[in-house]
C-alpha cells in the first residue's frame, strides 16, 4: 500500500513538473523538460528523436523518431501522457528536419530534406489523409530544413539550406502564393532554424555562416527590416525557439543550450541555460501562453477564440499498428497469414530490403509513387544510377578536369602546347621578334633635322614594339648604293624602250620585188615551156639565207666599174640576162 502511494506521489510530481516546464528538448531517445535551466522531468524512451514542435492550444508535443520501424512522426499529450503515431514511415532513409503545427486548421507540416519536399496531414476529426502524408510542395534545387507557421495570417515559412542559393520562403497553407522572403543578398548562408513571433509580427532565424561564424537575425513577416540580434563565433546553432521575451537555441558545437533577450542590444552576451555532457540535443521548444501571442493583434482573433473553445484533435484516425514491427519491418501483416504487405519502396519476405539500397552510386535515392527508385546525382555525376563521372575521358592530352563552381560543368586545365574546350587543339607556334634596342643617332652636319626634333622622335615607339629611327641625315653607305641602283635601272629601261621601238619600225618597211619573164621562143603546147622567171629583190631586203643577186665583175663595162649603183647597173644586169645561154 505504501509503495502504491509512493508511485502515485511520484507520478503526480512528474505531471506537475511537466505542466510547469519552460523548455523541452529532444535528446537522443527521450524528451527532457527544463525549468530555470534545471531538468525537471523526462518522457518515455523512444529510438532517436530529432525535430520537435509544440501546440499550446492542445498542450501537445509533436516529434520525430528516426529509428522507429514503421512510424516517423508521433504526438505526445502532456496532460494524459499518451503518445500516438501519426505518420507512417515513407522509406528507410527519409530525413525529416522540421515540424510545425497550426492549431487553427489542425494541420501538421514537415520538411523532408532528402526528398526535397514539404508534406502535411490534418489532425481534425473526420479528416482523411495519406498514411505517408500529403505532398504540399516539391522542390528541385532547394533543400528544405526548418519550418514554422503563422497561424494568425495563414502562412508557412521554411528555410532552404542549399548554400549555393540559400533562402527563407513562405507560402499559404495550400502551397499557393509562394515567394522568397530572404535570400543571399541579405548575406544569408545557411538558415538552419526559424521561428515566428505572432505578437511582435517578426520572424527570427539562426544562420550557421561560413567558417566559425554564426548569427541570430530577425525581420518583419514580409522579409523587411532585417536586424542582427547577435553575431558571434564558435557556435553551431541547430534549433531555435521563442518565448515571450527570450530567444533560445541549441549549439551543437559546445552541446549547450543558450538564451538571449529579444529586445537587448547587439552588445548583450548570450547566457548558458544548460549543458549536455554525453549526447547532442536536436530540437527545442519553449512553453508559451496563447494570450501573450494574440493580445492586441487583430489578425489573431481566430487563434484567441480557439484557445477559449479548445477544439478537439482527432484521436480516432487509424494509427500505425503496433504489431507490424514484430514481423514486418516496413509493411503490414496480412490477416491470418505470416506474410507481409510491404510499403512502397520495400520488398522481401519481411519487407526488410529497400529498392534504394545500393542503387544510386553517387547521389541520393528516392522512391516514386509507383515504388521505383530514382536518383538525384551529386555535382559531377550523371546517369540513371549516377554512375558516370562527367570528367571521365573528357579532357584530352593529359589535361586536368574539374567542375566549374557556377555552371557545374567539366572544365579542363590544359598542359603544354594544347588548348581548346577539351585541350584537343595544338597551339599555333608564335615567334616573337626581339625589340630593336633604342640606339641614339649620330647625325651629320648636313642633316636637315634639328637636334630637338631628332631627340623627340627617337623616343617614339609604335604600339607593336618597334623603335623607329628618327634621323633624316645622309647615310654614306646606304644612300649612294641606292642612287646607283636607281640610275642603272632607269638606263636599262630607256635602252629597252629604244630597242623595242627600232624592231617595230624595221618590221613595218616594205619589201621591193621585181619579176621578169623571159621567153626564148615559142614551143608547142605539149612541150615544156622554155622560159625563165627571175625575181630581182632589193638587196637591202635579203637575209643571210637567200642567194644574193649580183653581176659578175668580168661582164661589167669598164665605164661602170667606178660608177655608182643605179638604173644603169640594173639595165646592164637585165641585158646580160636576155642573152642566150651558152651550152
From TrEMBL:
GO cellular component: a single term: plasma membrane
Domain EGF-like intervals: 347-384, 387-424
Keyword Transcription regulation: no
Residue pairs linked by disulfide bridges in the UniProt entry: 391-401, 395-412, 414-423
Domain of life the protein comes from: Eukaryota
GO biological process, alphabetically ordered: canonical Wnt signaling pathway; oogenesis; spermatogenesis
UniProt keyword terms in alphabetical order: Cell membrane, Differentiation, Disulfide bond, EGF-like domain, Glycoprotein, Membrane, Oogenesis, Repeat, Signal, Spermatogenesis, Transmembrane, Transmembrane helix
Membrane topology: Single-pass type I membrane protein
Pfam families: Ldl_recept_b
Localization per record: Cell membrane
Signal sequence segment: 1-20
Record-annotated membrane-spanning stretches: 481-504
Protein family membership: Belongs to the cueball family.
Name of the protein this chain belongs to: Protein cueball
Lineage: Eukaryota, Metazoa, Ecdysozoa, Arthropoda, Hexapoda
Amino acid at each position: 500500500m505504501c509503495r502504491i502511494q509512493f508511485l502515485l506521489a511520484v507520478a503526480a510530481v512528474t505531471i506537475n513538473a511537466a505542466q510547469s516546464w519552460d523548455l523541452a528538448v529532444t535528446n537522443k531517445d527521450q524528451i527532457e523538460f527544463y525549468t530555470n535551466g534545471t531538468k525537471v522531468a523526462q518522457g518515455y524512451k523512444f529510438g532517436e528523436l530529432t525535430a520537435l514542435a509544440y501546440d499550446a492550444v492542445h498542450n501537445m508535443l509533436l516529434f520525430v523518431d528516426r529509428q522507429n520501424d514503421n512510424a516517423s512522426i508521433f504526438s505526445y499529450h502532456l496532460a494524459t501522457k499518451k503518445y500516438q503515431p501519426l505518420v507512417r514511415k515513407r522509406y528507410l532513409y527519409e530525413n525529416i528536419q522540421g515540424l510545425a503545427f497550426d492549431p487553427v486548421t489542425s494541420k501538421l507540416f514537415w520538411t523532408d530534406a532528402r526528398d526535397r519536399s514539404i508534406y502535411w496531414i490534418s489532425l481534425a476529426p473526420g479528416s482523411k489523409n495519406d498514411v505517408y502524408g500529403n505532398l504540399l510542395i516539391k522542390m528541385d534545387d532547394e533543400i528544405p530544413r526548418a519550418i514554422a507557421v503563422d497561424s494568425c495570417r495563414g502562412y508557412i515559412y521554411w528555410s532552404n539550406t542549399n548554400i549555393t542559393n540559400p533562402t527563407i520562403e513562405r507560402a499559404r497553407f495550400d502551397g499557393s502564393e509562394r515567394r522568397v522572403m530572404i535570400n543571399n543578398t541579405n548575406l544569408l548562408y545557411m538558415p538552419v532554424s526559424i521561428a515566428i513571433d505572432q505578437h511582435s509580427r517578426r520572424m527570427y532565424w539562426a544562420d550557421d555562416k561560413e567558417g566559425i561564424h554564426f548569427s541570430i537575425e530577425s525581420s518583419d513577416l514580409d522579409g523587411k527590416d532585417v536586424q542582427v540580434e547577435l553575431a558571434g563565433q564558435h557556435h553551431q546553432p541547430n534549433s531555435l525557439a521563442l518565448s515571450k521575451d527570450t530567444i533560445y537555441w541549441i549549439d551543437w558545437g559546445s552541446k549547450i543550450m543558450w538564451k538571449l533577450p529579444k529586445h537587448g542590444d547587439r552588445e548583450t552576451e548570450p547566457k548558458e541555460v544548460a549543458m549536455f555532457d554525453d549526447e547532442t540535443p536536436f530540437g527545442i521548444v519553449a512553453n508559451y501562453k496563447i494570450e501573450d501571442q494574440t493580445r492586441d493583434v487583430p489578425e489573431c482573433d481566430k487563434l484567441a477564440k480557439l484557445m477559449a473553445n479548445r477544439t478537439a484533435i482527432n484521436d480516432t484516425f487509424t494509427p500505425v499498428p503496433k504489431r507490424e514491427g514484430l514481423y514486418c519491418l516496413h509493411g503490414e501483416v496480412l490477416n491470418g497469414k505470416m506474410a507481409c504487405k510491404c510499403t512502397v519502396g520495400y520488398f522481401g519476405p519481411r519487407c526488410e530490403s529497400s529498392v534504394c539500397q545500393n542503387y544510386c552510386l553517387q547521389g541520393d535515392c528516392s522512391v516514386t509513387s509507383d515504388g521505383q527508385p530514382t536518383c538525384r546525382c551529386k555535382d559531377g555525376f550523371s546517369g540513371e544510377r549516377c554512375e558516370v563521372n562527367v570528367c571521365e575521358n573528357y579532357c584530352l592530352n593529359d589535361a586536368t578536369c574539374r567542375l566549374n563552381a557556377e555552371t557545374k560543368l567539366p572544365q579542363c586545365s590544359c598542359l603544354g602546347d594544347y588548348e581548346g574546350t577539351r585541350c584537343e587543339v595544338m597551339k599555333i607556334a608564335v615567334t616573337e621578334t626581339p625589340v630593336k634596342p633604342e640606339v641614339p643617332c649620330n647625325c651629320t652636319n648636313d642633316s636637315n633635322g634639328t637636334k630637338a626634333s631628332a631627340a623627340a622622335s627617337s623616343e617614339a615607339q609604335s604600339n607593336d614594339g618597334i623603335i623607329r629611327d628618327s634621323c633624316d641625315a645622309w647615310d654614306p653607305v646606304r644612300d649612294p648604293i641606292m642612287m646607283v641602283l636607281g640610275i642603272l635601272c632607269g638606263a636599262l629601261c630607256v635602252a629597252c624602250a629604244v630597242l623595242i621601238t627600232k624592231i617595230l619600225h624595221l618590221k613595218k618597211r616594205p619589201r621591193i620585188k621585181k619579176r621578169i619573164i623571159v621567153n626564148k621562143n615559142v614551143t608547142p603546147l605539149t612541150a615544156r615551156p622554155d622560159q625563165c622567171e627571175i625575181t630581182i629583190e632589193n638587196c637591202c631586203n635579203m637575209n643571210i639565207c637567200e642567194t644574193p643577186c649580183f653581176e659578175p665583175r668580168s661582164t661589167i663595162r669598164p665605164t661602170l666599174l667606178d660608177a655608182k649603183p643605179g638604173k644603169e647597173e640594173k639595165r646592164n644586169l637585165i641585158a646580160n640576162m636576155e642573152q642566150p645561154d651558152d651550152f
